[in-house]
């Protein structure tokens, strides 16, 4: 008896794996990525090796900016299956948003070899390649050149070829190409490096930073200058190994426009946090302030500027939506869509169209809602997204009393839901079909779909839904008898 009691009290045993998975998918579609990741985490305590669940949690990590966690999820999957294209894409995306463009490019290429028809890999290759090229003269690239230069001097003395740990992400066969200055080891060629380093020391914001291992950038630059001076004084062809410095705890750095990804991530989290806590006005004010900052950035310095602008216009639209200023919200969602098109990013275009469709539905402009939703169809790939999308379109047709079209989209939603195994969406889709067929006086078919919806409600143990569906089913059966 004591064992049985313990099992009842264990919350992980009360909720089936499939229910946690469905709940996580539901939160994900609603944009509540933190809650979705918590559901997937609970599900993985029941089935730790479930590949789909690991991928879904990784997507949540990407959405909330936990790129390192997303990277670890992808690597876990790749350890067991090097050909897992979902994991390759996730790893490439995580690396890209962490600023490791060359590594991201490698994994986009690997994924494309496995799935050449997958457009996301092609777009990834394009953006990673452009970002790698454009980053050549940014402050981040200068840091990378500086650190590589320091390591090359160490290598020249020891005659070994280790890959520095700040250049590796469990891929020791990959190396970042070395800059031209990094291999200038002859005595007569060090003056350019010295001039370059002295100029860097004048940039107080830059030198106040720290490396991944907690070393001060200022200390590294100074040690490099000391090496050059010693080399000139002693007439050495190659400078000696720089003194090892004690690792310090990395200091927290404020996000700046020189670190656009971190700057955007922090501010987007703040904006979303304000909105989630019910402070739509503060969310709006913050988003508008950040928008002004991003608009001043150069696209050469920040290759992802348009994508950042798209996200900010969506945030502004979300805040205006909560403030019931639908006309202005639609204007910003349209700008979101325009920037997403310029970036040629199907996922971002889909999000913008979804927001527009929901806004039109909210103000009962159902024809415009359908127009926006139907533009999403070629952009949506996953079955769960299709289920939700077809359901939205079908409901809009119901509101227009166009029940034939509503029934068609209801059937498409139900078919996609069957592919996902999501009981909640099976229920919603079958209700849509049943209601449409009831209006079309196809009573027997309507009864059959109400029964399917009721079965799905029973699987979920949703008492309220069961009661409502039972009443609807009884009413439909009365029409059959007549």
In summary, what is this structure?
This protein has 482 residues and is mainly α. It contains 24 helices and no strands. Residues 1-13, 136-190 and 231-258 have low confidence and may be disordered.
Q: Secondary-structure map with pairings?
A:
Elements: H1 2-9, H2 11-14, H3 17-29, H4 33-46, H5 51-63, H6 67-80, H7 85-97, H8 101-114, H9 119-134, H10 139-158, H11 190-201, H12 204-207, H13 217-234, H14 260-276, H15 280-295, H16 305-322, H17 326-343, H18 346-362, H19 366-376, H20 383-399, H21 403-420, H22 423-439, H23 443-460, H24 463-481
Name a few traits of the molecule:
482 residues; mainly alpha; Serine Threonine Protein Phosphatase 5, Tetratricopeptide repeat; 4 domains; 24 helices; 72% helix; 0% strand; disordered N terminus
3D architecture notes:
The chain has 24 helices and no strands. The two termini are about 55 Å apart. The protein has four domains: about 120 residues, Tetratricopeptide repeat domain (Serine Threonine Protein Phosphatase 5, Tetratricopeptide repeat, Alpha Horseshoe), CATH 1.25.40.10; about 100 residues; about 120 residues, Alpha Horseshoe (Serine Threonine Protein Phosphatase 5, Tetratricopeptide repeat), CATH 1.25.40; about 100 residues, Tetratricopeptide repeat domain (Serine Threonine Protein Phosphatase 5, Tetratricopeptide repeat, Alpha Horseshoe). The longest helix has 20 residues. It has about 475 residues and is mostly helical.
């Amino acid at each position: 008896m004591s064992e049985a009691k313990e099992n009842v009290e264990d919350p992980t045993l009360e909720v089936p794996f499939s229910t946690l998975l469905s709940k996580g998918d539901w939160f994900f579609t609603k944009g509540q990525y933190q809650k979705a990741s918590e559901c997937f985490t609970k599900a993985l305590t029941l089935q730790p090796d479930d590949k789909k669940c690991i991928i879904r949690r990784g997507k949540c990590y990407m959405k909330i900016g936990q790129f390192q966690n997303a990277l670890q999820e992808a690597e876990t999957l790749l350890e067991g299956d090097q050909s897992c294209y979902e994991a390759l894409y996730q790893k490439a995306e995580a690396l890209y948003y962490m600023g490791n463009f060359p590594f991201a490019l490698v994994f986009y290429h690997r994924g494309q070899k496995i799935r050449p028809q997958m457009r996301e890999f092609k777009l990834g290759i394009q953006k990673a390649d452009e970002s790698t090229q454009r980053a050549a003269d940014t402050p981040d690239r200068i840091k990378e050149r500086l650190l590589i230069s320091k390591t090359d001097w160490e290598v020249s003395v020891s005659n070994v070829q280790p890959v520095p740990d700040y250049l590796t992400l469990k891929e020791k066969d990959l190396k970042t190409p070395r800059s031209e200055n990094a291999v200038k080891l002859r005595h007569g060629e060090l003056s350019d490096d010295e001039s370059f380093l002295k100029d860097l020391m004048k940039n107080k914001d830059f030198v106040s930073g720290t490396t991944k291992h907690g070393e001060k950038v200022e200390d590294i630059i100074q040690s490099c200058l000391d090496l050059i001076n010693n080399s000139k004084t002693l007439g050495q062809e190659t400078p000696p190994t720089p003194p090892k410095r004690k690792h310090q705890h990395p200091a927290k750095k404020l996000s700046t426009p020189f670190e656009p990804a971190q700057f955007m991530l922090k501010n987007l989290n703040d904006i979303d946090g304000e909105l989630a806590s019910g402070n739509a006005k503060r969310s709006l004010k913050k988003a508008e302030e950040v928008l002004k900052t991003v608009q001043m950035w150069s696209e050469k310095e920040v290759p992802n500027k348009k994508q950042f602008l798209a996200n900010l216009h969506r945030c502004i639209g979300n805040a205006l939506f909560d403030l019931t200023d639908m006309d202005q919200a639609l204007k910003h969602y349209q700008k979101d869509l325009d920037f997403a098109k310029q970036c040629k990013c199907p996922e971002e275009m889909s999000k913008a169209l979804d927001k527009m469709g929901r806004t039109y539905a909210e103000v009962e402009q159902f024809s415009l809602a359908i127009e926006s939703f139907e533009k999403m169809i070629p952009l949506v790939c996953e079955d769960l997204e299709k289920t939700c999308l077809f359901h939205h379109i079908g409901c809009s047709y119901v509101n227009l009393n166009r029940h034939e079209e509503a029934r068609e989209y209801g059937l498409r939603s139900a078919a996609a839901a069957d592919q996902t195994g999501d009981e909640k969406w099976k229920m919603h889709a079958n209700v849509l079909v049943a209601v449409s067929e009831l209006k079309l006086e196809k009573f027997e078919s309507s009864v059959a779909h109400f029964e399917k919806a009721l079965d799905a409600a029973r699987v979920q143990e949703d008492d309220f839904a069961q009661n409502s569906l039972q009443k609807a089913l009884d009413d439909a059966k009365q029409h059959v008898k007549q």
